[in-house]
Amino acid sequence: LNMMMTLQHVIELNNQTVAFMNQQQFYNARVTASSAMKHHRELDREGEQETSLQTSSNSSAGFIDECMLRDNVDESCNSSTEEFVYQRGILLPSDATNTIDITAILIFNSALSHQLLAKQDHEGATQLRMLNKAKQLYELAYDSCDMEDNILFKFAVINNTAVIHKAVGNATKSKECLDYLVSLMMLFVDRGCSMHLRQVHGFLANVNTSTPETAHAA
Description:
It is a single chain. The protein is mainly alpha-helical. It has helices at residues 2-22, 26-46, 48-56, 63-70, 99-121, 124-143, 151-167, 171-191, 194-200, 204-208. The protein is globular and about 45 Å long. It starts with a helix and ends in a 10-residue tail after the last helix. Mean pLDDT is 83; it is low at 51-59 and 212-218.
């Protein structure tokens, strides 16, 4: 019971992170995201065997994509910026129990809060440090779950990483990511994934801006 209460606290912290990001309170979002990750690590350490028993029965393929699609919004490129960032934090349902899925979502939301805070409030060396931290977290999120079962999540992680590569002046890496995403978008089309396409169609703005001038160095 105590472990489930702790897990509920992690879920509440994660969803508070998303609420802060929706309100553009990115500093607060970064704090609660870090706290959620910390509590989840402690939960893993305190009851690894019990947690695995609880979570194995409730694991489902594509769970992260399902969480993203519950937030049925039409993502597009903000006209005030030159790139598309997938900036919707991922909410966890109150009955989520699968450790792998929860971990990936916590890491993604932490990465996103760093990226959006860097864009909103920082420049120079501080911005560069926060963007690199976000990139590291996205890479960790990518490696933490089965991306083939969560292709929308995969798309969001790679897209946001491409934006960071561009922002720090690594245009070649950014273009490699975007070229891959074009093929992934074709997969959405082939599978008739209209809801997936609605979430990421603003990404095409990144393809259109990936070739011009070198991105501004932070």
